[in-house]
Amino acid sequence: MSIFKNLPAAPIAEKKPVSDTHHGITRTDDYAWFRADNWQAMFKDPSLLDPAIRTHLEAENAYMEAAMGDTKPLQEKLFEEMKGRIKQDDSSVPVNDGPYAYGTLFVTGGEQPHYFRTPRDGGEKHILLDGDKEAEGKDYFRLGGLDQSTDHNRGIWSYDDKGSEYFTLRIRDLATGEDLTDVIENTGGGGAWAPDGKSFFYTLQDENHRPSKVFHHIIGEPQSADRLVYEEKDPGFFMGVGASVLDDFIFIDIHDHETSEYRLLSTKDLLAEPKVVAEREEGIEYSMAEGGDVFFILTNDGDAKDFRIMEAPITAPGKESWKEVVPHEPGRLILSVDAYARHLIWLERRDGLPRIIIRDRQSGEEHSIAFAEEAYSLGLHGAAEYDTDVIRFSYSSMTTPSQLFDYNMVTRERTLLKTQEVPSGHNPDDYVTRRVMATSHDGALVPVSLLYRKDTPLDGSAPCLLYGYGAYGITIPASFSTNNLSLADRGFVYAIAHIRGGKEKGFEWYETGKMEHKQNTFKDFIAAADYLVQEGFTAYAGIIAEGGSAGGMLMGAIANMAPEKFAGIIAAVPFVDVLTTMLDDTLPLTPPEWPEWGNPLESEEEYQWIAAYSPYDNVAAKPYPPILAISGLTDPRVTYWEPTKWVAKLREKTVGSAPILLKTNMAAGHGGKSGRFQRLEEIAFEYAFALKVANKTAI
After folding, report:
1. Cα R_g (the chain), whole angstroms
2. pLDDT by residue (tens digit) across 338-348?
3. Of 22, 267, 473, 660, which sees the most CB atoms within 10 A?
4. Rounded to two decimals, what is the model's pTM?
5. Whether 396 contacts 480, CB under 8 Å
6. How far does CA 643 lie from the centroid of its chain?
């Protein structure tokens, strides 16, 4: 392709055919050797990577650098723009909790958050944890948070310094800033304090990176002495542990993507066996919030596809005691519920837009918090304390910087606490945000959120970055992003396709984008591209598609299905070798993912579903557009070998001349680099690729 000039020869991966047979169907994989046999050990110590694999990844990085070398000045310009829109010495608005208020801040030039507290009524900030100091000398460092004990004397903090998402827990004396001798390795990150502040509960990751056990740790004891509280034998379930807002219970949350189970441990008897609330039933989900003498339970039980809210006494929380307090309403998806002394609040979504509902627990009177823009994002932050009338929420749109409000649930007064500062300047009136509907192949209307400058011509000449995800019921909000302005200011239309597989239009929108219906996700995205072309927002020759993780699967699928409709594709940590991964039950996420994609080990029908779209399996002789794949060496979610194999096969099969690029972060995992400005460098790189493909690289 003419925009990529004077490229050296691309790396050619060696073929070492490996075959497998399932349900009488044999596949041969020429590039299976990229999967390191010692991947579990390598995630903890990347130096153990097979030298042949490392040599190939480094050759791919060198080729990528050659292809993108001429964009270095543009990358630097984009990075400075993005950095200039971030308030470097930013600080959160502290959250009241007992005698203190807790928050985070960044310092000028710093990459990591600093955790602080102040006296509740204001006063000097006391730094509890300096993330920049803890990250010194480390190529990768990610904090998992800081959780204060009920008596505010100590805090659990965690970190991952390899990108592998194995977190180490430490205990800090919050008065002195010194860590105790306790070191807890290989955890899921974070812990749940017992009320006396002398012990806590945590999840341990096993060798296949699954949080399969909950332990109770007594401060001062070695990790080897920790008591096993619960072990989840089914490898298909995730597990988390947390404490109730009143510190009465430890919650053990066990779930996959469609089924859940809670076990409760009363903090009055920490040595007791946790008790099941409602036995797991396939397809039944529930979650719990403590409300004094009752639990409020958000569930889809009873054919409540878009969820309803029940209550049960804390003395008898089993399903036989559940009574409905907020009924199921088709098309009104209830996303979360919180309980406070006098109010019940929940976040719901109707017609693709969120709103917060507040109910007076005594009178039953309800009112809502909503906004008038065509597309916006609403975040419910709630409160750290139970006995309160004030909660916190945030609001933004694609043109409006984030605003943080305190809201009095009795007086209904909103207090603006903070508006996101854009130091380099931002005028919302220079931009337009819209919500349009694209008609998919079966008549479904796919919401598409748009951002562009008012002076952008809508005659098909504008390039477009079209973003999509479409999996796990995750909704991509139409929220403010300072980074997207760098594309809009260069004449791009920035678009988010709210495709099936998410829950933008209710639970059914998710259901009809998974399992046997997965191809709706891909067809919806292509329909969004078609709509944007038909309506003059862009042209096929100007659309750069972008997606990451499961959205990277989307990128691989649309590259195979309609390569002619995209000028370029950015696939970040792309889940593209779906069939092979779902056949490998030793991988961290495979058993928990079967309810999302299907189980090809057990079912020939489900094998065929996946085989029909799995991007790696469907690469064919066709002219692919320029593709940029990005991966992380220690990524436990989408393993580095998936994009590596995909790029090798694409390069082998394509009949076009467009380059296929692979960038592997050799010191990072699923989320890329860990620092806030390091992350901007990666976004600047991705946007430079999009601008290069659009032939808009002028500084």
Report:
1. 25
2. 999 999 999 99
3. 660
4. 0.89
5. yes
6. 19
